[in-house]
Design goal:
The protein has about 300 residues and is of the alpha/beta class. It folds into three domains: about 5-85 and about 260-275, Rossmann fold, CATH 3.40.50; about 90-170, 3-Layer(aba) Sandwich (Rossmann fold); about 170-255, NadA-like (Rossmann fold). It contains 15 helices and twelve strands. The chain has helices at about 5-15, 30-35, 40-50, 60-70, 95-100, 115-120, 130-135, 150-160, 170-175, 180-185, 200-205, 215-220, 235-245, 265-275, 285-300; strands at about 20-25, 35-40, 55-60, 75-80, 105-110, 125, 140-145, 160-165, 190-195, 210, 225-230, 250. It is globular. The termini are far apart. The structure holds iron/sulfur cluster. Iron/sulfur cluster (SF4) binds near residues 170, 172, 257, 259 and 260. Iron/sulfur cluster binds near residues 25, 60, 87, 170 and 259.
């Protein structure tokens, strides 16, 4: 990154009481620019704790919206305004209303990678890390789960509940090729294989551990292994290499989220300069969606 942009980002950040948050899938240069790097829930919690005047979020739309839900008094700006999530786009609040008619006794648990109107219709949200706990805590034997079918299938296998799963998916994780993982395993037989539960089941069957991004970091910290094969978006490799320079990481395959790559240092600077495109959440949805997110944080 040119020094001029780096210095201008620092200056404006201090002048405007801003913090920069970056998801672990963001490009390395953005992770290096951020004050905090983490998964979407960690970052939303950080935004709430820091109470900054301005939060520049480097990630995709649903993440900035979740941060805004938990920090309604901060101006939250998504650095790359066009960055969206193919998984969140798979299911709407109207889709969930239809499912509720079909399964009237079932509570709805929605992955945090979702739109605000879907969250507002849900009993609770969950992350990949606490999805099993939240589904177990739902006061019904049957649970509607969406929008990710791979995560839903994994949760169904790990709980005693009957799940009605919406057939959505993340294009990046769903498009991964199992032959790439098998090739890497043959090359690195001593490596531990860590796979994100948004991946197709065949990846999970071949993994040593199925974990969200925060769980992967904790797992590496506690592991004696020197090499790891990582089954999630490629930005995570940079994150792990930064945190654990003495270990070696390789991607399980080509898992790339184009929208995560939209953020550039120039856009971060623009977000700090303009402050104009703050996330707005309609009042009629904000309270209900925030309640679903808060219920998740209370459970786990
Ligand atoms: S990696 Fe998948 S789930 Fe994550 S933001 Fe990109 S499309 Fe959405």
């Amino acid at each position: 990154m040119p020094n001029r942009i780096k210095e201008e980002i620092e200056r404006l950040k201090n002048e405007r009481g801003a913090i920069i948050l970056a998801h672990s899938y963001q490009p390395g240069v953005i992770q290096d620019t951020a004050d905090f790097v983490g998964d979407s829930l960690e970052l939303s919690r950080t935004a709430a704790k820091e109470s900054a005047e301005l939060v520049v979020f480097c990630g995709v739309k649903f993440m900035a919206e979740t941060a805004k839900l938990l920090s309604p008094d901060s101006t939250v700006v998504l650095a790359a305004p066009d960055a969206d999530c193919s998984l969140a786009a798979c299911m709407s609040g109207a889709d969930l209303r239809e499912m509720k008619k079909k399964y009237p006794g079932a509570k709805a648990v929605t992955y945090v990678n979702s739109t605000i109107d879907l969250k507002a219709e849900s009993w609770a949200c969950c992350t990949s890390a606490n999805s099993v706990e939240v589904v177990e805590a739902a006061p019904s034997d049957e649970v509607i789960f969406g929008p990710d079918r791979n995560l839903g299938t994994w949760v169904a296998e790990n709980t005693g509940k009957k799940l009605h799963i919406w057939p959505g998916g993340c294009h990046a994780h769903s498009g991964a090729d199992i032959r790439d993982l098998r090739e890497k395993k043959a090359e690195w037989p001593d490596a531990e294989v860590l796979v994100h539960p948004e991946s197709p089941s065949v990846f999970l069957w071949e993994a040593d551990a199925v974990l969200g991004t925060g769980g992967m970091i904790r797992h590496v910290e506690g592991s004696r292994a020197e090499r790891f094969i990582i089954g999630t978006e490629e930005g995570m490799i940079y994150r792990l290499e930064t945190l654990f320079p003495d270990r070696v990481f390789v991607a399980a395959g080509k898992i790339v989220c184009d929208d995560m790559g939209f953020t550039t240092p120039e856009l971060v600077l623009k977000a700090l300069e303009s402050r104009n495109n703050g996330i707005e959440i309609p009042d009629e949805l904000a309270d209900k969606a925030a309640a679903a997110v808060r219920r998740m944080t209370e459970i786990g």
